[in-house]
Amino acid sequence: MHRKWLVSRTNPDYIKYLSKAVSVSPAFAQVLVSRGIKTPKAINSFLNPHISGLSDPFEIDGVKTAVERIKHAADTNETVLVHGDYDADGLTATAIMVHALRTAGIDAHYFIPDRISHGYGFNPAAVKKAKKLGASLIITVDCGITSFDAAACAKKEGIDVIITDHHEPVPKSSEFRVQSSELDEIQDFMLPEAIAVVNPKLQTHNSKLSTLSGAGLAFKIAQALDSALSTQHSALLLDLAAIGTMADVVPLTGENRILVKEGMKLIHEGRRQGIRTLKSVAGLDKRELRAGLLSFTLIPRINAAGRISDSSDVVRLLLSETEGEAEDLGSWLNRLNSERQKIEEAVYQKAREALRVMHDERVIVLSGEGWHQGVVGIVASRIAEEFYRPTVILSIEDGIAKGSGRSIPSFDLCRGLTECREFLLSFGGHRQAAGVRLKVENIPLFEKAMQRIVETALSKEDIVPSLEIDADVVLSEVNHSLIREIAMLEPVGCSNKEPFLAARKLEVVNPRIVGNNHLKMKLKHGSHSVDAIGFDMGSTEVSGAVDAVFTPAINEYNGSSYLQLSLKALRPSQ
User: Fold this and answer.
1) What is the C-alpha separation between 5 and 3, in angstroms, rounded?
2) What distance in Å separates the CA atoms of residue 477 and residue 385, rounded to the nearest whole number?
3) Residue 386's domain is classified under what CATH number?
4) In a domain, 352, yes or no
5) Exposed site from 184, 365, 393, 571, fewest CB < 10 Å?
6) Domain limits for position 398
7) 168/76 same-domain check
8) Are 274 and 249 in contact (CB under 8 A)?
9) In this structure, is residue 350 part of a structural domain?
10) Is the residue at 284 inside a domain?
11) CA–CA distance from 201 to each of 167, 185, 188, 197 (Å)?
12) Are 340 and 331 in contact (CB under 8 A)?
């Protein structure tokens, strides 16, 4: 697929100033500026995140009320039920909240909904479980902001509810009305009845914490409980917060960057039995585990249970202190993940067959009878990436279509769904990912409405993917010192991606195909040459002088290590 090359460029004199001010190479200074980190103070803060930089949890509206109610539950020996979610963010959030409550001396239990029988969100079935347990308080994590019926059901049963969620709240009108004052700005949202509703997205005046994941928000509650009880237990939960944050693909800046950076230290140390076991079954015992690798190793295994089985035991694994129990659960998750991969591939192939030819549509909506609900989100993500279009994949059963949507950066999917909610039974999620449920007969109307909404919102230029290049460099600038600097960007991920560098007018030396369609060569500029490999780029034309986009890395092979460029794109030099 053709991609636009977008190169960040800054006044060279300013780059020289920054380079000297913070003692980094000009190339790395440009990388930092290209992601909005433009002053010596901001650079030092970004490159040295520390737990002491975490914000005060009581800055989030509702936290004070929530903590007071939790303290009352501890003082009066109440039973509390934590209502989680079946994905990795929701499961780690559940484990964080349960651990925090039990540490505070509370009899805490948890309920994880089943994806197929319960669906997404705070479920009335949890109210039944709470009543059976004798629980007088339900705390939701990673869900609940749109669960009006379940909240009303709990109130009717005399059970208090605290909602902690980071998903988009429902506006009272599709116009997203705003009420303003000199001191504050409050979005006009419909909220469930609860003792406290804790959701940073309700605070338009304080966006610093608005990108927290469900696990990140649960950690802030644990942090607030520490403050209220004069304890220091929350620091031990940073590994779970890091996994949930990476799983939910939230920006790795500010608070999230600190959570992941500090949490990765605990993951490296293997403090938690369940995570040690997951690392072992994923074959990571002796491998350096960077944050980005979580998305391909531990997180898919945690997610596998919620996709095709019952994920309640994942919380048991994350809280387990027994090696034998953890090993049994870890092996089970590993088997489920292999099964999930097979199911996902089968549904993907059916979806691709249903798509056949991509015409000029701005949005893709595909549906099929019996497609496994647990994998439609991954399939939507793959197709959205492949065709660079907002994509919704629906599974049809008994006249109802349930599914997941994934978007591209230029389109707010959740807002788009809000504009066509007349055709939906329910929906919820984020700007880039959401879940939907609708009647089968409404699928054509929904698709037509979404096409109209996306066509209005996006131009033809918006649906051409772009390659955002952090810095233009001369090949001789790419060395071991630059790689050490790039390593300081860790953890990399959403809004802090691995840097893409571009070099121009390079000579291609000895190009050849290796492995499964990988393009290997040396790239040369003047007397300087570097090894390069382009994965799945075997069909790329490499005659004449080329421009290259790449990320430099150290490749280790047969006991030796050398500098290698991981190619992202090649094109003939202009």
Assistant:
1) 6
2) 32
3) 3.10.310.30
4) no
5) 184
6) 357-463
7) yes
8) no
9) no
10) yes
11) 8, 12, 12, 11
12) no
Whole-structure pTM over 0.85, yes or no? Answer: yes
Q: Which of 238, 262, 286 is the last residue of a domain?
A: 262
Q: Confidence band (pLDDT; 50, 70, 90) for 164?
A: very high
336 in the same domain as 428: no
A 10 A CB-CB count for 46 gives 18
Domain boundary among 463, 492, 523: 463
Question: In angstroms, rounded to a whole number, what is the distance separating the alpha carbons of residues 215 and 368?
Answer: 33
- Token digits of residue 331: 């092996």
Name residue 364's beta-bridge partners.
391
Helix (H) or strand (E) holding 413: helix 413-419
Q: Rounded to the nearest 5 degrees, what angle is found at the Cα of 158, between the Cα atoms of 157 and 164?
A: 100
Q: Is residue 367 part of a domain?
A: yes
Q: What residues pair up with 368 in beta bridges, in sequence order?
A: 395
Residues 407 and 312 in one domain: no
Phi, psi of 414 (to 5 degrees): -65, -40
Distance in angstroms (rounded) separating the CA atoms of residues 407 and 409 = 7
Contact assessment for residue 523 and residue 529, using Cβ atoms and an 8 Å cutoff: yes
Which pair of tokens denotes residue 208?
């610093």
For the chain, what's the residue count?
574
d(CA 212, CA 226): 19
> 434: which 2 tokens?
């959401």
What single DSSP character describes residue 425?
S
The count of other CB atoms within 10 Å of the CB of residue 182 is 5
The count of structural domains within the chain is 4
pLDDT band at 359 (very low <50, low <70, confident <90, very high): low
**Residue 269 and residue 288 in contact, taking contact as beta carbons nearer than 8 Å:** no
CA–CA dist 445, 481 (Å, integer)? 56
Residues 216 and 181 in one domain: yes
Dist CA 293 CA 267 (whole Å): 12
> Which pair of structure tokens corresponds to residue 496?
């802090």
**Together in a domain, 24 and 139:** no
Residues 403-447: tens digit of each pLDDT: 999 999 999 999 999 999 999 998 888 889 999 999 999 999 999
Strands (E), 418-461: 426-429, 433-439
- Identify whether the C-beta of residue 299 lies closer than 8 Å to the C-beta of residue 246: yes
Contact 137, 69 (CB under 8 A): yes
User: Which tokens hold the place of 188?
Assistant: 């006009």
- Tell whether 457 and 494 lie within a shared domain: no
